[in-house]
Amino acid sequence: MGYQDCAQLMGTLFICRSLTIMLHDLLGEDISVYAFEPIPETYEILDLNVQSLSTQKIYTLPFGLSDANKVAEFSYSSGGSALSSIYPYDGAEQRMIKRAFIRTLNYLPKNAPLFLKLLNKMPGQVLNFVLSHMAKKAFDFKQVTCQLKTVSELMAELNISAIDLLKIDVEKSELDVIHGIEDRDWEKIKQIIIEVHDISDRISVLTQILYSHGFKQVHVEQEVELIGTNIHCIYALK
Quick check: helix, strand or coil at residue 80? Predict the structure, then answer.
């Protein structure tokens, strides 16, 4: 997962999107997981996957996290659901993501999906054709109306007194989620992992916020395949 596996992972986890299945396989019933997914189509798949695990400690919630309780329009593509965002990707960002995906093919692990291994063996012209088709499908967005809530609001609603890990991967909405944490709740959060799109010096802004709320270790990493993009991860630990 990065940065020393972000220390221990036992207790209560708030997760935006789906790290859920992997954590269940790794830790079983030692954790309670709250997994958030605002896109209805994606939420249905997440919920079905969790139901198949026969566990009472994973809770799926059909909304996202933000800075307020509100309804928002998301750009969503069934061909690239991980790119769903309130803040659509412009042409330059789309090209950046495509380049990062091509770079990923050079760092495939042995257990990588078969289709990625097949892509990696394609001649250059064929690969470019296939990737162009995939990109067109991935960035074919439609507007979807979604419900959003704040971390603090949900902690009160769910009667959660502490969060052992807050994982944020929200496609350019990370500052919104952070602004949805009220001062009284910061001391209840032990660890944070944030995927950051470094727009307008956002890494520096988030780092200062985390230090100001008592996080003693704040570490920034960038995965090898994301070099050349503005996407990084911040790991923060008290």
Answer: coil
